[in-house]
Each structure stands twice: as C-alpha cells, then as structure tokens.
Amino acid sequence: MSLKIGVPSKGRLMENTFQWFGERGVAMRQTGNGREYSGAVEGIDGVDLVLLSAGEIPRELAAGRIHLGVTGSDLVRDKLADWQAQVAELAPLGFGHADLIIAVPAVWIDVDTLDDLDAAAAAFRAAHGFRLRIATKYHRLVRDFLTTHGVADYQLVDSQGATEGTVKNLTAEAIADITSSGETLRANHLKVLSDGLIHQSQATLFLSRAAVWDAPERAALTLLSSRLGLSVPQL
Amino acid sequence: MTPKAAIRAEAEALFAAFQAAGAAPVEADILLPAETLLDLYGEDIRARAYVTQDPLRGEMMLRPDFTVPVVQAHMTHGADPARYTYLGEVFRKQDHLGPRASEYLQVGYEVFDRTAPEAADAEVFALFARMLAPLSLRAATGDIGILMAAVRGLNTTPRRKAALLRHIWRPARFRALLDRFSARTPQPASRARLLQLLATDVPGVLIDQSASFIGLRSPAEIAARANALIDDAATAPIAAEEAATLDDLLTLSAPAALALTHLQAIAARMPAIRPAVARFATRLDALAARGIDITTLPFEASHGRTSLEYYDGFVFSFHAADPGLPPVASGGRYDALTAVLGQGKSIPAVGGVIRPGLVAALKGGNP
C-alpha cells in the first residue's frame, strides 16, 4: 500500500500547501481538468495525494484512512478528543494563520477580561433566567478554555457561520470565533477580550497514529520526511 | 477485565446490603431532560455526559448520576424522613483513550432526614466503611460547610462574598478572586483605565460614546456592573491576616481528631466558622460512636472542591492503592441541591455511591 496524504481540496489552503511541499522538492498537482478532486505527488514513490475538505481531514486522520494530512491546528484540537493520542504534529506550515478568540459587544464598557465575563454572566443569569449564550462552532476548544479559567453561568450555542451577527440578532450575548484581522468583529460592533485568546491556529502537517504503518508506508514516510527535513515520531 | 456477570452479582450484593440497612429501593429514568442537569452543573457537564436530541422532548442526557432523579422523586412524593438505595448504569464520556469505562454500574444510598444531620453523615460514612472494609481502601474526608462558613464570615462586602461562594468549587478562579479582593494581585490595567474614565463620566455617557448598542444585555445592566466596579474599587481589601487565616483553612490536612484541634484554633481567629466547627466535632463524635477511628481518619479541608458542584457539607471518598483508578466510592451532603430541585421545599440530604465494577475487580485481584 502507498502512503496517503490528505490536502485541502481548494483555494488558498491548497495552493499554499502545494507551494510548501514544492519548495521542499515534493511536487504536488491537481490532475484532470482542475475541477476534479484528484491529484498526484511527483518525484517521490509510494505517496498518494488525496484531496479533501479541510474540515474532514481531522476525522480521516483519526480513522486512519489517510496517513498524513494538512489542516488547521484549531480543527484537530476541536474535532478530536484526546487529539495527541490520535495524531502527531509533524510541522507547522506557516500559513493559514487565525486566532480563536472570545468577543463581546464593544458597548460592554465593564467587560475586558474573562474575570469580567464571568461576573457579567452571573448577573446576566440572575436578570434573564438563563445562562449567557456564547455562539461558536468550536465547542470543545471553547468549553475546555472556559473550564480551565473557571468561567461559569454560560452556555454554548451552535453557530456554523456568520457568527459575528448572532449578538445583533439576539441569539447570543457573546461569540467565540476565528479572526485574522479583526475587521469583521469591528464591523459587527464586537471587541476581543484581552485574555480571550483560546488558540493561535495555522495550517499544520499531522500524522495519523491509527493508520496502517507497515514497511512500505514506513519507507515512504522516511523518504518523505528526509526530503521535508522533518523528524518522525515513534509509531 | 472482570466479567459483567461478576460485576452485576457484586452490585446486587451491595444493593441488598443497603436494603438490609433500611433503605427502600428506587428506580430512575436513564434518559433525563438535559436542561435540569445543565442548569445545575453548567456547560461542563456536556463534556462528561452523553447528550442526545429527542424530536419531541428536546435535549436529553444519558443519566450521568442518580442524585438528581432520586432527589426529584423524593421532593415530589417522598416520605420524610426517607432512606433510598438504587442500582443501575451511569454514563460518562471520557477525555482520554484508555481503560476508564464510559458506562458502569453504580449502587447508591441516600438519606433524607431533618433531625440530626451529623448523625446521618456518620451513618452513611460508617455504612460505606463497613461494606468496603475487606478491600483495605484509603478514605478521604472533607467539609465544604466549613469553607462556606469561612467565606460568609469574611469582613467584606456581600458582593465579594457571593463571588467567592459561587466559585468554591472552582479553586483556580476562587484563588484569583481572593488574591484580588485582598490586594495580593493588582487589578487589571483595563479595570484601572475604566475606573479613571468613570471618575469623570457616569456609565451611561461612556456607554453612549463607546459603540453602537447591540445585544440583549441592556445599558442598565452594563451601568449596574460599572457602578458595582466603582463601589468595589472603593472597598478596603480583605485584611492580610484574614486572608492568611483562610489560606490556613484551605490547606488544612490532618487526621480528623487533630484537624479538629487545628480548626478550633482557626475558629479563635475566625469566629464565623465556630458553628460549622461545632458541627464537625459533633460528626466526629457520631463517627467514633460508630466505630470509626477518628485519630487516623484523613481530613482535608479542600477535599471535594473539584467534584461535581453540589456538595455543601461533609464529603468523603474511598480509594484503591492505584492512583490511576477512580474512587471506589464517594459521596457527601447536598442540602442546597434539594432546595434548588424542590421548588421552594428543601430537606437536608446526604448519600453516596459505590462502583461495584471496581469492588469486583479489586476482590478478583485484577483492577
């Protein structure tokens, strides 16, 4: 069997990934007519390219259906429980930077820290009869972060898109979402908590611990990692 | 692995022993409405319990423990006083891949009795100790009631006490608040800036100037907290000596009889905990009367602070030698929970659970 490497199937993430590997002497390209989700790795034997949605790569790594995969470090931490037991981080790739942060309405002059958010949540629950709502799609990361910092009296509400609009639409009081420039937050009258940085994400090359690692896959990995200048964890 | 049949047999034996001790067997639903549990435990319970969606009943949870359904059943149609026992599966998601079970049996014993809470504490602990005696477990005990009394007795504002009480079960946040209230850590820079602005403008003006208003949290609520921050800034810090006494209390760890001496010494500096320490002494007498050696029984004032947050008095657990194993048994007093679930009614309650799976494994020599 060959070593399968999963790469985001479109857009800047795919282009940057191809460029990162290309600079290190591993040429990746899309095959077919450019809309077809198939690809090839050239200049190295026994490595297959699998084009996938970045959001599905964590799951495919956990299941062992791909040996290596490129995706956001935020997605792996959020989608995989006990992620370090399931995958290993081989290399941060230096692009796809985004910060997962907690933001509240800019008009909340009394709230700047998690300590403030916690106190506001207690008062909010007493006044409104329900726990302060934080809209996010990063449930595990946000909950773990708030638990670690001892914030109580909140609830997470699911928001898969346009999360910055939930406060204005009265479906949440605060949000936890990724931001790169903060432009969208400001446009939606939100501000970031000064200690509300949950995770600094970037595109990262991961290795699946669940994949089949027989002699051919190990040989391909050794070759690939020496080409990329990476050290390989114990399998 | 211990065979399931052996675990079931062990569970039945424990269940029978609790009934022989005078408890009435009760049943509880496995599918529970998630909202009650979420309101009680907060969002953290989602990480530990299986949540599922019912098209008609909304979010449901696979029973993470028996306490809530048993208390609810008692508050709706229970006798007073009452002793209950139950046997069944509970379900807990695990954070790490590994041997910890996500589905296991629990056998429990709960006492609802108004007459003599300390005697009921001793009854439950002594019963568990006797039933588990062949396993030579290490016991641990604590008393959240003393900590709560100490916080309530602090010489500071009701608002600060309420903030500390709310975080008794979150030691890190409790510590951060106590350090700030006692001026051991400075206030955040943003707080200082805000207070400076509030010195010249009322909150309403700052709110109007800051940004477009959005959201459900009203300007009045924002202004109310801003005013609370002004009040808090004008409040004297908790005296260093008082904060140090509270630290002594939080870190107290000693055999129970010796702990009583320490607690009495702390109570001399902190009179507010005297009634709670008197109850501790009464409990020790009751434990001794039931044959517990209080000169060796371990006591830690902070024991039980990181468990599920409803214990508000005596807490206990029993542990195997392997620190990697979960407690074989645990329990405590949860008077406030009965008030929350009782819709106006409340009754002092104490109880605990045993994990028959661990008991069977320890007996079989393969935990």
From TrEMBL, chain A:
SUPFAM superfamilies: Periplasmic binding protein-like II (SSF53850). Its EC number is 2.4.2.17. It catalyses: 1-(5-phospho-beta-D-ribosyl)-ATP + diphosphate = 5-phospho-alpha-D-ribose 1-diphosphate + ATP. Keywords: Amino-acid biosynthesis, Glycosyltransferase, Histidine biosynthesis, Transferase. One of its GO terms (biological process) is L-histidine biosynthetic process. Residues 54-215 form the ATP phosphoribosyltransferase catalytic domain. It is an enzyme of class 2 (transferase). Pathway: Amino-acid biosynthesis; L-histidine biosynthesis; L-histidine from 5-phospho-alpha-D-ribose 1-diphosphate: step 1/9. GO terms for cellular component: cytoplasm. InterPro entries: ATP_PRibTrfase_cat (IPR013820), ATP_PRibTrfase_HisG (IPR001348). One of its GO terms (molecular function) is ATP phosphoribosyltransferase activity. Catalyzes the condensation of ATP and 5-phosphoribose 1-diphosphate to form N'-(5'-phosphoribosyl)-ATP (PR-ATP). Has a crucial role in the pathway because the rate of histidine biosynthesis seems to be controlled primarily by regulation of HisG enzymatic activity. NCBIfam families: hisG. PANTHER family: ATP PHOSPHORIBOSYLTRANSFERASE, ATP PHOSPHORIBOSYLTRANSFERASE ATP-PRTASE. This is ATP phosphoribosyltransferase.
From TrEMBL, chain B:
GO terms for cellular component: cytoplasm. L-histidine binds at D65, F66, T67, R92, Q106, E110, R305, Y310, Y311. Residues 7-200, 232-352 form the Class II Histidinyl-tRNA synthetase (HisRS)-like catalytic core domain. GO terms for molecular function: histidine-tRNA ligase activity. Keywords: Aminoacyl-tRNA synthetase, Ligase. It comes from the Bacteria. This is tRNA synthetase class II (G H P and S). It comes from Rhodobacter ferrooxidans.
